[in-house]
Predict the 3D structure of the following.
Amino acid sequence: MVPMRVGLPSVKFTRRRVIAGLALLAGLGGLITWAAWPAPKNYTAHAARLDVMTGPAGAEKVTLDTTFYVPDDADAAHPVPAVLLAHGFGGTKRSVATEAEDLANAGYAVLTWTAEGFPGSTGQIHLNSPDYEVRDARSLIDWLAARPEVAKDPGGDPRVGVVGGSYGGALALLLAGHDPRVDAIVPMITWNDLSKAFLPEATGKPQSAGVFKKQWAGVFFSSGNSSGRGSGGGGLAGALAGISGDDEDPPREGSLGASPDCGNFARDVCDTYLRIAATGTATDADLALLRRSSPASILDKIKAPTMLIQGQADSLFPLTEADANARGIAANGTPVHVDWFTGGHDGGAGPQADSDRGRYLTVTWLDHHLRGKGDVPASQFTYSRITGFNTSSSNRRPTTSAFSLEQYPGLAGTGSTTVDVAGLPRQIFNPPGGTPAAMSTIPGASSLSSLISGVSLEVPGQHADFLSPPLTSTLDVLGTPTVTVRAASPTGTAVLFVKLYDVDPSSGASLPFGLVAPVRLTGLPTDIARATPVTVTLPAIAARFEAGHRLMITIATTDQGFATPNDPTVYTVGVGADDRATISLPLAAGTPIATAETLWRWVLVALVATLAVGLAVVLYVARRRRHTAEIKVIPEYEQTPLVVRGLRKEYADGFVAVAQVDFTVERSQVVGLLGPNGAGKTTSLRVLMGLTRPTKGEVLIFGHKLTPGAPVLSRLGALVEGPGFLPHLSGIENLRLYWRSTGRPDADAHLDEALEIAGLGDAVQRKVRTYSHGMKQRLAIAQAMLGLPELLVLDEPTDGLDPPQIAEMRKVLRDYARDGRAVLVSSHLLAEVEQTCTHVVVMHKGEIVASGEVADIVGDSPVAQFDVSDVPTAERVLADIEAVRSVTRDGRSGLVVDLDGTPRADVVSALVDAGVGVDRVVPRRRLEDAFLSLVGGNTRASGER
């Protein structure tokens, strides 16, 4: 046999080469171990509950859950500066534990606390109100001033800096504006004006005309209503990574969950949100409340040197918020440094180089301004830009390079250029209720790679594109581009979303960081020829557009992150005044910053060259092994549609949503997943669909371990949310469009079979806008059945259906499970599960309490049904049997009898002796009875995730 070549150079392994290679590997291993070994703990942490007086008059007492980190060498004789470290919205002091430990090891006394209204502290959420959260923080500075370990200024004030991300970043700004004792601040990924952040408008209209950022607002509101399991920390990583572990479990007390409609929010904050969310617009009173909690109101009072770190991948608080803060603070002569990194609320902490730079900037800023140690950054502005991708990573992680400019250029760049785009006016459709909606980014996704990989999705018929010629040179854009657009509307108004795409001729269009410019236009004509062009300021970016690429302006009617008009409307949109427009692009070319990665690259060149051959062999073997592991199938489950083994989901704060779940779905089975609210059904389904990762355990589909993007997922169909279709298309057109989006051949759709099973008949030729809710639900089932997947997972498939439709759905599901397919159904309609399913899995408090065939779960019963020939005579006979507790008629010939332990044979004998014919005797127990007995009759909500 001739050995196969694998494309690697031939290497002769001599004894000398092997020894040299091992020595180099040992040295490299030592370097890696030294770099990765955790730093020793040089501090002591003290947890305490501090009472502070708060409120407009300072007469209300709240208790704050705190932890004070003190360096081991700090005492009255050797005091150290202090840092107040504030967490992000929805977090607690545990969210910033890692950052606190790092700062304590760096020699700072660090005080972390849980803000009012979040677990462990009392009070309510007032959104960083000067009268509440800011007053609380001022009391914490008072507390620090009394600590002997904390360094003092000559006047006795504590040397204190404030660091925070998002919610905590705004607190840092507001506290510095209200308390002159603050000596330095590092606010990260935070806001300038909440009204502009949540009601943006890209043509310069006042915020009362802004477009409501409903999805992010909903995330905020739900985080405030929950028990503190949101994200957001104090540092660059902690602000984005969610709550980290802590040894203590803060008590859940105070006003948490006191109001069913407002949860932990103060009434005025809650009412403002509910009013804006219901109408999509804000009143003057609403705007005033949002601005009360906005640094914009006190920028002229901030004297503390400020390091502003803001994320580019941030649809919540974009770069314009940091720019407004920087300009307002610098106007007073206060030192300001601005840094833009490639992460943010939507992009996480960014690549490692960005995280490292953020930590370095924070510590050097504090060291200089609190300890008089080291120099401040030589420049006023640093930023990073995506310059490539790590091709050795399976998820194509982006890599970045950092740059600096001596002066902060704001959003106008240091120069500019223009690019023309053109195209005829187009009609675009605003769907009823704004559904389906375009997707530009996923709020809070914290995955920069997903943003770069093209998450954005435009809906056909709801957008218009206007292209430029290919670029003749590469453009480094830094700031806010602008473009003119025009629109006509039969209602005189329009809500539109304007976007700047980068069109690569080889890979298609991508939307930088998923950012959009929302526009609300009024006073529009009905004829586009009479429309006046308006200037739209596009989102600020730091991006490179390569030569040969095109720029594309897209105008869309919807975006899932924003509130749009409910009424269906057709707009006509165009660019410029004559079907041509000029995009004005701010440009800047910063000076590259040498990073640790750059320096080490040269150090390791010789080592990499020496080990190249050996590493290539190792990588090849490892890749082959990984590939083998990925495609390995567990033989005993290869023919089993679904196996769930040892599933557990525990959140970072210790909440266990699913404790232990094991069940199997075999071929030809229809399995019902039951449980009261809080049982863990939703979490289990989310794990099953790959929407969340389990803490332990695994899910096998036909023997393949479930992983995102696994080929075996093509054998699974699902309906896990309500149906959503394009209303102006027919049912069959919607199904064909969906199938084309999967990229699989049309012949594999088995469209006719899916439609036959769903039983829609000729209705599939009608436009979906004419469908009833039940028909849309059946169409959604047909969509899930496209390709005739061998495993079908449905969440509440009978939702909204009337009784005849529910009866039809029973038949649909039973028919589908024939020929070896399987169905898993999650439903709260126990009677339907009993009549539809062959098997049942019952969950309670995150565990399986029963599973098996429906008949086995229902079991025996003291109640039986008798079908008899003479009902009146049978009633008299049964009434004379002392042990029989009750007799109830059921139909013409049926009697439901509570035997109370009397043997059924004895009752049958008594009836027969009286001349009554007995046609059938069956136990009479419903699944609902068995369900209630299994879960103890308690089906109230208990915080299911």
About this structure: Residues 596-631 form the longest helix (36 residues). The CA atoms of residues 860 and 923 lie 6 Å apart. The chain has five domains: 43-201+226-254+291-405, 415-591, 596-632, 637-855, 860-924.
